[in-house]
Every structure is written in structure tokens, then in C-alpha cells.
Design brief:
Blueprint lengths: L3 H16 L2 H4 L22 H39 L2 H54 L4 H29 L5 E9 L9 E8 L2 E9 L5 E3 L3 E4 L7 E9 L2 E10 L10 E6 L7 E7 L1
Helix pairs in contact: 1-4, 1-5, 3-4, 4-5
Family: Belongs to the RIPOR family.
Protein name: RIPR3 protein
Length: about 290
């Protein structure tokens, strides 16, 4: 008698899960292979809170781009009306071409935003179903053991695993829509700690992506680096790890290792990032990030 009502709920839950199966409703594959989608690199531990933070930052950044291009379109449209009356025909057509180009880009942005929202909505559905399966598993485990309850526990476990797999699948698909981070090396800031002739190595890691560059302090206190720019593909689960070492002949001395979250990089304007490499902040690393 105890199992009649839960089994009815479970039957409804199983139908809901079938209707909401992510991979049966939409194709999320992309020709680009990102870290979460690589074979053997699937993260079977969804992180809904982290995904929510990235989604909100991503949507805010995309809307900033949309507003900026909408403002540009309004400006060009105003000039277009004046030019039609007062300017040469060739200039008028050139302006018309710019307007059509901005309109196409706005449509792409709107589609991008709708796709991200669609993915996140599907993610939230799977998250709620997964939580429901976990709660029901707990309830059945507390009930007297019967054949029906044991069968229900087996099915609930399968559905829990299915929701987990779908959530990880959506996380990988959402990662494809995060864009690119263009990092530019601006140099080390160290006041008296940096002396002419000093050589340093900076190692930046984001998941499996790595950037290793070497620099030297010149006699005029300027800095030369063997590489100045690098593109990173954003990752939902990983933070930037930055390691700085000082090169002294054949020896290397660790200056410091820090991590940096990318949550604030999703914006239209280049971000100047100054990271304390040492605990006291006597040496800092300055980067510029453009999303």
C-alpha cells in the first residue's frame, strides 16, 4: 500500500523524462570540438550553479553587443535619410551596404541569444528532473523493501544517470557558444623587484589550453616578450591558472601561482586584468582580455 502513490508519481515522471529527453528533441553537436566534448573528457558531474553564473554573464555580454550594434544601426539609419536628400548616389549606396551588414549581424546575435536561452532552459528542465529522481530514490530507499520498490529504484537510478548525461551534454553544447578570449600580454609590474636583465617565464593554462612565453627586462625598464597574444576558448568548469617563474641561468625560481575566474570577461570592452603574482603583491602580471 505504501508504494501505490509513489509508483504513480514515478510513472508520470518517467513519461516526463521521455518527453524532455534532450538529445531526442534537439541536435546540439557542433563541428568545433571543445574540451568538454572531447572523447574521454566528458565531465560526469554537472555544476548547475557554475553554469547559471556563466549563462547570466554570457547573456549580459551578448545583450551588450546587441545594444551597441542597435545603436550603430540607429545612427546609420539617421544618416541614411539625410544622405538620400543631400549627398551623392555612390555614398548613399555605400551607407546602405553598411546598414544591411549591421542588420545581418544583429540577426545573428539575436539567434545566438535565443540558442543560448534554449540550451539553458533545457538544462534547467534536466536539472529539475534529476533532482526529482534523487528525491524519489531517497524516499524509496526509506520504504519497506518490496519487488515493486526495488524495480522502481533501478529505474530511478537509470533516469538519474540519463539526466546527468543530458546535463553534461548540454554543458558541452553551451560551451560551443561562449566565443573566444583574446589575451594580450601587457607585462609585469614589480616596482623595485624588476631589474634590467631579469628574465621571466609566464605560463597560462585554461583546461587543456596552454600559453608559455618568455620575457626580459631591458636596460630602459621596457619589457620584450617572445609572444604577445593568444586566443583561448572559454571553459565552463575551468579557471585561468597563471604561473610566473624567474629564469636565472640554468635555474628557475617560482615567483607565484594564481588562478583567475573568467566570469567578468564576457563584456564588449577590453578588460585590463592585473593579477597579484606574489602574496604581498610586489610583482603583478598585467593582461588585456577581449571577448
Amino acid at each position: 500500500e505504501f508504494c501505490i502513490f509513489p509508483l504513480f508519481i514515478f510513472s508520470f515522471y518517467r513519461k516526463s523524462l521521455s518527453r524532455s529527453s534532450v538529445r531526442s528533441r534537439m541536435s546540439l553537436r557542433s563541428p568545433k570540438v571543445y574540451s568538454s566534448l572531447q572523447k574521454g573528457a566528458v565531465i560526469w558531474d554537472p555544476k548547475p550553479l557554475q553554469v547559471k553564473k556563466i549563462f547570466e554573464a554570457l547573456k549580459k555580454g551578448l545583450n551588450e553587443y546587441l545594444e551597441a550594434h542597435q545603436a550603430e544601426l540607429d545612427y546609420l539609419s539617421g544618416r541614411h535619410k539625410d544622405t538620400k536628400r543631400n549627398s551623392r548616389l555612390a555614398f548613399y549606396y555605400d551607407l546602405d551596404k553598411q546598414i544591411r551588414s549591421v542588420e545581418r549581424y544583429i540577426r545573428k546575435l539575436e539567434f545566438h541569444i535565443s540558442k543560448v536561452e534554449e540550451l539553458y532552459e533545457a538544462y534547467c528542465i534536466q536539472c529539475r528532473l534529476r533532482d526529482g529522481a534523487a528525491n524519489m530514490k531517497h524516499a524509496f530507499s526509506l520504504s519497506p523493501s518490496t519487488k515493486a520498490s526495488r524495480e522502481s529504484l533501478v529505474e530511478l537510478y537509470k533516469n538519474f544517470q540519463g539526466c546527468t548525461e543530458d546535463m553534461c551534454f548540454i554543458e558541452g553544447a553551451l560551451e560551443v557558444h561562449l566565443g573566444e578570449f583574446h589575451l594580450k600580454m601587457k607585462g609585469l609590474v614589480g616596482f623595485a623587484r624588476l631589474c634590467p636583465g631579469d628574465q621571466y617565464e609566464v605560463f597560462v593554462r585554461l583546461g587543456r589550453q596552454k600559453w608559455r612565453l618568455k620575457g626580459k627586462i631591458e636596460t630602459d625598464d621596457s619589457q620584450t616578450w617572445d609572444e604577445e597574444e593568444k586566443i583561448f576558448i572559454p571553459n565552463l568548469h575551468e579557471k585561468f591558472e597563471i604561473k610566473v617563474t624567474e629564469l636565472r641561468g640554468l635555474a628557475t625560481i617560482l615567483v607565484g601561482v594564481v588562478t583567475c575566474d573568467s566570469i567578468n570577461f564576457y563584456t564588449t570592452k577590453p578588460q585590463a586584468i592585473i593579477v597579484d603574482i606574489t602574496e604581498l603583491g610586489t610583482i603583478k602580471l598585467q593582461l588585456e582580455v577581449l571577448w
